[in-house]
């Protein structure tokens, strides 16, 4: 199968991409200029339409207009995690710009210019946006600043060293001359690029670390003007709503579309091919979304299910249990866990079940495609430019450069919009191509309805864990054996060579193969299940979603079994891990761990749980407080969170990501599961794929560990500790251990 | 033709009466601030005001709002409560992905129009129909209290 090619080596530390470059020339070269024409009537006060004119474009990452507005070209999608604000902060800091005059727009697809330095491809993931941009964006800002200063020095005939910059104003104090960025933009554009730029000493940071720097996307996300893929309207555009097969792997065999075609507004009905990695289906194209949905619902399609996947969750789990009884591939082996377990005076044996989980972003998947002869334009909340661009080019048989992508806001994603097989993007292109073959020339907006989205696959994989811990006579944790069973979503992707070695999928065991606790005999094994036809994918915090749950509830059991305080027990096993200890101590202090939890009302039982976990280079500890009611239902009252993500670029965004990560994790812990029966997904919408609602959100307090080390990410690391801390709290309150997620009503059982 | 008052102006929709208000707003009137999330009144992303009441536009047929006053996110700033809510949202940086926030702001504005001093329980009741997968709920609550203070 033709697939995306990974570069031979990682490119971190390579050429930072700061060089002279005209973005407009690039846009012209790719036919992207059309964007300006099409978007002019669509974009409000912020957007590509503003790009016209002779702006100062010192590099690929920013331009400064004659109005003094600094526009950052963001190589990372804004899907809620605050990337636009973060990238703008890094540039504005070194540019000494006026924060109120910063704007951000999405970068076009161009791997050479906009690759993620963490993996050499243009895309957003792994909580890497700030970490990989930290130096690159500051250099981009510093370089632009130097050129503005040089322009002022030339105009004013003064030495550049005497010129200062503050909040978007260039100033020569001795002569009292001042100029705004806008006034100098044209002259700055004629300056040579500085060969090298010096970055600020962190003590001089004014924006980085500021407690409350307003988000760049708040204004247009509060007045309805923010543009998501769903909002794109182009001349002659049709909306396509697909009918997907009821089981993964089925294909249409007989289509009766007369009723669909009779719906007013329906223009075309197309069948389009898929493969084992994306849906084949039938799409109804109409002049408006409602007509397309009605048309789709009126289709009568018979499906060829000869190659369809037909197992249910129960059968998959039974297979996994079978596998869990056999030796797997060793992911980590310290000492001799088998013997140590035999000598243990006390054992803890546990089996954990984790269901499939849908990402269920609020914006269902969608994608806008315009095909012309030899060219394809895409508008998307684009998380995976390099992959999508290359796979679309392969599908259409056109050069990569002939695929242009406009990166819009994504209405959530949680990983789903970065599909390693470009499933939904290729589906949209396949529909557009099939429509074009029927004479439909206009652009096509593919819209998945919520049921398409819920049943669309690429879930967090179902996992089964089986673990045994052994304690000696003095309560010391001597042995830990752990076996995981689940699907790999790295198999068959370009990442396989990097992420899947010797039968170990790194993201299946991440968070346990690097267990931080001092356990002398540790043995971790993995079984990668084969032949399970449910598509799976990364889901916010990936393998840590299940490994942190197993490890942090098991360590809690060990603490309780030995009569130790769960916080102090962890501390004692983490003495070689200062950053784990840092967040653990901070969260315990802020949560008032040493004081007793205030009692609940009559008949209520209260409990408190703690967990700590490292993911994506960041460290997070959480304390969860719960109340179990007389009817055994429960309420999550409060979550205290401590995070160490290195240097805090935007503290308020970090707090927001912890709050959001906690809420996202809470949905999965309490309610969410995708289940299959006879190969069919049983859930379809928010009534049966349940997520937390407003009244279920606890009080959240976030504390950031002060740090000067290089920044790491925050989009994902807030998620993993929540579920185990909650389960530990429920145990403290009820005496019941939860080993199957979601928790649902297990306390009542 | 279905006539109604849309964001303070008389408006005629050339659309079938069974078309949900959501799609009439988005696809016919071109007001894309109101969002599609579920199509079944489960998520609240499509919340608009019909005669001042928060309403799920995704399950409200266009014919049901004939002759009524419909207000969307695009015009909510014209109302004191709406303006206060938007300002509080910006002050506290409530948004993350932002997709559900039009609906959140419309629900919160309706609450504050009817109740200038909502308790936490009132906020729970008014906002529990609006999902946010980014879980901005902590800040939504704080911003509603903030908006209430600014309106006092």
Automatic annotation (TrEMBL), chain A:
Top-down, what is the taxonomic lineage of the species of origin?
Bacteria, Pseudomonadati, Pseudomonadota, Gammaproteobacteria, Pseudomonadales
Q: Which PANTHER family match?
A: ALDEHYDE DEHYDROGENASE
Concerning Pfam families, the annotation shows: MoCoBD_1, MoCoBD_2
Q: Which residues form the Aldehyde oxidase/xanthine dehydrogenase a/b hammerhead domain?
A: 223-307
Q: What is this protein called?
A: Isoquinoline 1-oxidoreductase beta subunit
Which molecular function terms from Gene Ontology are attached? oxidoreductase activity
UniProtKB/TrEMBL annotation, chain B:
Instruction: Give the matching Pfam families.
Output: Fer2, Fer2_2
Alphabetical list of SUPFAM superfamilies matching this protein = 2Fe-2S ferredoxin-like, CO dehydrogenase ISP C-domain like
Q: Which Gene3D superfamilies does UniProt cross-reference here?
A: 3.10.20.30, [2Fe-2S]-binding domain
**Where in this chain does the record put each 2Fe-2S ferredoxin-type domain?**
1-76
Q: Which InterPro entries match?
A: 2Fe-2S-bd, 2Fe-2S-bd_dom_sf, 2Fe-2S_ferredoxin-like_sf, 2Fe-2S_ferredoxin-type, 2Fe2S_fd_BS, Beta-grasp_dom_sf, Diverse_Oxidoreductases
What's an example of a GO molecular-function annotation for this chain? metal ion binding
Q: Which UniProt keywords apply?
A: 2Fe-2S, Iron, Iron-sulfur, Metal-binding, Oxidoreductase
Q: Which CDD domains is this protein grouped with?
A: fer2
Signal peptide, first to last residue: none
PANTHER family cross-referenced by the UniProt entry: BLR6218 PROTEIN (PTHR44379:SF2), OXIDOREDUCTASE WITH IRON-SULFUR SUBUNIT (PTHR44379)
User: What protein name does the entry list?
Assistant: Isoquinoline 1-oxidoreductase alpha subunit
């Amino acid at each position: 199968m033709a697939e995306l090619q990974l570069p031979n080596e990682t490119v971190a530390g390579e050429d930072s991409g700061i060089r002279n470059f005209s973005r407009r020339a690039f846009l012209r070269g790719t036919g992207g200029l059309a964007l300006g024409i099409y978007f002019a009537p669509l974009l409000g006060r912020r957007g590509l339409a503003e790009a016209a004119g002779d702006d100062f474009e010192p590099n690929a990452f920013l331009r400064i207009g004659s109005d003094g507005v600094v526009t950052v070209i963001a190589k990372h999608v804004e899907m809620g995690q605050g990337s636009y604000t973060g990238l703008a902060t890094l540039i504005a800091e070194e540019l000494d710009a006026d924060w109120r005059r910063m704007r951000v727009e999405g970068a076009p697809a161009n791997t050479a210019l906009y690759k993620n330095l963490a993996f050499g491809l243009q895309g957003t993931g792994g909580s890497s946006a700030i970490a990989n941009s930290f130096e690159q964006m500051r250099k981009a800002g510093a370089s632009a600043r130097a050129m503005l200063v040089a322009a002022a020095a030339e105009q004013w005939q003064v030495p550049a060293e005497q010129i200062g910059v503050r909040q978007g104003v260039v100033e020569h104090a001795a002569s009292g001359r001042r100029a705004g960025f806008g006034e100098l933009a044209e002259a700055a554009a004629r300056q040579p690029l500085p060969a090298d730029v010096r970055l600020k000493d962190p003590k001089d940071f004014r924006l980085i670390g500021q407690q409350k720097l307003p988000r760049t996307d708040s204004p247009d996300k509060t007045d309805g003007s923010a543009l998501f893929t769903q909002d794109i309207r182009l001349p002659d555009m049709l909306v396509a709503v697909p009918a997907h097969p009821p089981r993964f792997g089925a294909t249409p065999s007989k289509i009766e579309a007369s009723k669909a075609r009779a719906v007013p507004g329906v223009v075309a009905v197309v069948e389009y091919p898929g493969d084992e990695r994306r849906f084949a289906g039938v799409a109804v194209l109409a002049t408006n979304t409602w007509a397309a949905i009605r048309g789709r619902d009126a289709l009568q399609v018979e499906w060829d299910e000869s190659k369809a996947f037909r197992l249910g969750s129960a059968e998959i789990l039974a297979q996994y249990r079978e596998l869990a009884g056999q030796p797997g591939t060793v992911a980590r082996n310290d000492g001799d866990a088998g013997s140590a377990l035999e000598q243990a005076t006390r054992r803890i044996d546990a089996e954990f079940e984790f269901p499939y989980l849908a990402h269920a972003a609020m914006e269902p998947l969608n994608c806008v495609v315009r095909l012309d002869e030899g060219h394809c334009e895409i508008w998307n909340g684009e998380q995976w430019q390099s992959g999508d661009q290359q796979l679309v080019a392969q599908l259409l048989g056109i050069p990569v450069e002939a695929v242009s992508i406009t990166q819009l806001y994504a209405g959530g994603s949680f990983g789903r919009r970065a599909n390693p097989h470009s499933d939904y993007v290729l589906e949209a292109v396949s529909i557009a191509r099939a429509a074009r073959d029927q004479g439909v020339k206009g652009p096509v907006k593919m819209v998945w309805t919520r049921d398409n989205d819920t049943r669309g696959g690429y879930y967090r994989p179902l996992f089964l864990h089986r673990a045994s811990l052994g304690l000696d006579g003095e309560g010391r944790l001597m042995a830990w054996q752990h076996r995981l069973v689940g699907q790999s979503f790295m198999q068959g992707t370009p990442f396989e060579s990097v992420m899947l070695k010797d039968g170990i999928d790194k993201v299946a065991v991440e968070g346990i193969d690097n267990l931080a606790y001092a356990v002398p005999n540790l043995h971790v094994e993995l079984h990668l299940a084969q032949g399970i036809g449910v598509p799976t994918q990364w889901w916010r915090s990936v393998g840590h979603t299940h490994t942190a749950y197993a490890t942090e509830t098991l360590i809690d059991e060990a603490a309780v079994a030995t009569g130790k305080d769960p916080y102090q027990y962890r501390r004692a096993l983490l003495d070689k891990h200062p950053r784990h200890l840092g967040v653990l101590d901070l969260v315990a202090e802020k949560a008032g761990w040493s004081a007793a939890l205030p009692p609940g009302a009559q008949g209520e039982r209260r409990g408190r749980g703690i967990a700590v976990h490292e993911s994506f280079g960041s460290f997070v500890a959480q304390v969860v407080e719960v109340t179990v009611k007389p009817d055994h239902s429960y309420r999550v009252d409060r979550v205290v969170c401590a995070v160490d993500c290195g240097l805090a670029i935007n503290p308020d965004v970090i707090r927001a990501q912890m709050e959001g990560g906690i809420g996202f994790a809470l949905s999965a812990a309490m309610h969410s599961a995708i289940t299959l029966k006879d190969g069919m997904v049983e859930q379809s919408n928010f009534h049966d794929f349940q997520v937390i609602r407003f009244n279920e959100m606890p009080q959240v307090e976030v504390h950031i560990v002060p740090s000067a080390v290089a920044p790491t990410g925050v989009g994902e690391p807030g998620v993993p500790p929540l579920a185990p801390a909650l389960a530990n709290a429920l145990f403290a309150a009820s005496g019941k251990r939860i080993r199957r997620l979601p928790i649902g009503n297990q306390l009542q059982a | 033709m279905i006539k109604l008052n849309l964001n303070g102006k008389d408006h005629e929709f050339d659309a079938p009466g069974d078309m949900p208000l959501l799609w009439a707003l988005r696809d016919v009137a071109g007001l894309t601030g109101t969002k599609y999330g579920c199509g079944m009144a489960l998520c609240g992303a499509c919340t608009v005001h019909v005669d001042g009441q928060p309403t799920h536009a995704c399950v409200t047929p266009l014919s049901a709002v004939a002759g009524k006053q419909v207000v969307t996110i695009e015009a909510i700033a014209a109302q004191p409560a709406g303006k206060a809510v938007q300002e509080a949202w910006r002050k506290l940086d409530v948004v993350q992905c932002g997709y559900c926030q039009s609906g959140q702001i419309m629900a919160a504005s309706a609450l504050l129009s009817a109740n200038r001093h909502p308790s936490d329980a009132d906020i729970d009741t008014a906002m529990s129909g609006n999902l946010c997968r980014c879980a901005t709920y902590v800040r939504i609550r704080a911003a509603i209290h903030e908006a209430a203070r600014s309106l006092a």
